Amino acid sequence: MGGFTEADLRALAGPRSFERGSGYLDAVTALEVGDGWITATVHGTGAYEVELSLDGPEGLSGACDCPYGLEGNFCKHLVAAGLRALAGPESLPRQRIRARTRAQDLDAWLAELSRDELLVLVREQVTEDRQLRHRLELRAASARGDLAEVRGRIVELLDIGPFAQYGYVEYADAHAYGEQAAQVVSAIAALTASGRASDAISLSREAMRLLSQAQGAIDDSDGHLGQVGTALAEAHLDACRAARPDPEELARWLVGHALGDLDELTDIDPLDYEDVLGAQGLAIVRRLAAEASCGNRTGWAEKYLMERLARAGGDMDAVVAVYAADLAPDGSTHLAIARELDTVGRCDESLRWAERGIEETRSVAVDSSLIDYLCARYEAVGRLPDAVALRRAHFAALRSLAAYQQLRTVAMATGCWQTERVVALALLRADAEQRQQGWYGGPVLIDALLDDEEVDAAWRAATETGAHDRQWLTLADRARATRPADALGVYQRLAEPLRNQTSNRVYEQLTGLLLSIRDCHRRLGTPDEFTAYLTALRADQKRKRNLMRLLDQHGL
User: Fold this and answer.
1) What pLDDT sits at residue 147?
2) I need a surface site. Which of 11, 262, 279, 310 has the fewest CB within 10 A?
3) For the chain, what percent of residues have pLDDT higher than 90?
4) Do strands 59-64 and 28-33 pair parallel, antiparallel, or not at all (unpaired)?
5) Closest CA to 37 of 85, 75, 5
6) pLDDT value of residue 190
7) CB neighbour burial string for 282-311, b if at least 16 within 10 angstroms, e if fewer
8) Helix, coil or strand: residue 96
9) What does the alpha-carbon distance between residue 492 and residue 501 come to, in Å, rounded to a whole number?
10) How far, in Å, CA of 290 to CA of 99, rounded?
11) Cα–chain-centroid distance for residue 439?
């Protein structure tokens, strides 16, 4: 029999949520312990419904409709409900046994009632519970095949009016609307079960349309409407399997649905209907999809449907044709085709498509992933000079540190790095002198020299062309052992503006710089100068208590 302890709650929630949940015990109401579950309402910013599951595959788990809980987290409200259950007058196992006994007793009592007694009981509940009455009225209308009544109730259930304020359903009311909308699915399923599957098909389609129209006016942050949409799609499929509608009509509806706005909510896949469509209907789906694709070659929905159908048919040439109908200017589509061809072992064709992507994107920035793919293919077959040429052209276009590093890697493998490096650095030096490529973060030339472990050369370049503070800090850190005086000047310059700023992040930066300044004075043999500098700084910054505490922690 599953159970849990405070330690289990802490492990699931984490220390912070556990501590916060500990303060919410008095906010827990309507606590109920069942055989394997615990439910409650926890009052915080709102009234949140929580449920703890005790016997799941991973042991204790929980769900809460607060924003943090809807992200899949074990929140403070779940902690509060769990702690409140553990604090009960009886142990949790004992509470579960009592819940199981109550359920068994109820089942036994109901089983002993006569039909008339059960009717009296249900009528009492219907009188007291309006929502139950509405659900049963809808089920009754479905069972007797009253299509007009069912349609009217569906329209009422999907109407946002009772939940909306100024035409919009806020998050706090969206869950209740979703629960009401879910009743539509039950009504449609009941129609199918009662032999009215054809009516269920038409009503499920109408319900999808109404729900899609309402979707834009609802804060569906928890995705509840998506669940209702999926359930509607399943009810439609079940009805189609029972009614066996005309394959051509179904094919036309499926393609129209897949290419329309409604598909975002229901995500219906025409291939799920293969057993209903048969060979004739599936052929019509393929023909209609092809016609739609020809009419709108750049349409995302058309491409996705064509690709899906092509994959299902195992026709790689058709998949390639779908991609090739709308090639992206940066070569990313060429890469997608190459990777698709790789999956079926057509490696020569995939290489030609990748090379074609490079040839056809010379006038625009090429997708870096295409460069990486093609270089890897070249290296795998020993075409290193081609890989170098490709990396060289890519670097010349981007002038970035990453492109420089990639060129260096392949050129070193080929044994031509020294030659390539001279040309590459000349390009970066020209950029630095003109303050062009990468200047927002400092000249790439300096980053490249530092990456090559050429610290002195990088320092000279920074002095000649200027550098970003980030680069000066890196230079000072790397050169401190051999150029302490130069590094000291950099650290002091970077520290000065921080003295006029506040925040813990700034204090951490300033403390780090002070530690570096102290090390420079130690190397220079001038510790007294640092002592005087630090004393003056502390006197000037003494009102910043967090900074003073941080300096104390680091012995400053």
Assistant:
1) 82
2) 279
3) 50
4) unpaired
5) 85
6) 85
7) bebbbebbbebbeeeeeeebbbebbbbbbe
8) helix
9) 15
10) 59
11) 33
Instruction: Summarize pLDDT for 271-296 with one digit per residue, the tens.
Output: 999 999 999 999 999 999 888 888 88
What is the arithmetic mean of pLDDT over 486-490?
Answer: 94
Region 18-41 average pLDDT: 90
pLDDT in tens, 126-149: 888 877 787 787 778 777 777 888
Q: Apex CA 49: angle with CA 4 and CA 126, to 5°?
A: 120
Cross-strand pairs, 53: 37, 61
Predicted local confidence at residue 84, as pLDDT:
92
Residues 469, 100: Cα–Cα separation, whole Å? 69
Neighbour tally for 410: CB within 10 Å? 23
- Among 446, 454, 448, 507, smallest CA distance to 473 is for 446
Residue type, 441: G
Closest CA to 491 of 530, 455, 453, 526: 530
Answer yes or no: pTM beyond 0.70. no
Q: How far apart are CA 111 and CA 103, in angstroms?
A: 12
With cut-offs at 50, 70 and 90, classify the pLDDT of residue 327. Answer: confident
Q: Residues near 331 by Cβ (< 8 Å), separated by ≥ 6?
A: 357, 358, 360, 361, 366, 367, 370
Whole-angstrom Cα distance, residue 168 to residue 216?
A: 9
Going edge to edge, which strands form the sheet with 28-33?
Answer: 28-33, 37-43, 47-56, 59-64
Instruction: Judge residue 326's burial from the number of C-beta atoms within 10 Å of its C-beta, 0-12 exposed, 13-18 middle, 19 or more buried.
Output: middle
- pLDDT, mean over the chain: 88
Q: Which residue has the tokens 């700023």?
A: 501
Angle between helical axes of 247-259 and 300-312 (0-180°, round to 10): 130
Residue type at 466 in one-letter notation: G
pLDDT of residue 1 exceeding 50, the answer is no
Segments in 297-346 forming alpha helices (H) = 300-312, 316-324, 332-343
**Vertex 35, ends 34 and 38: CA angle to 5°?**
40
| Single-letter residue type at 487 | A
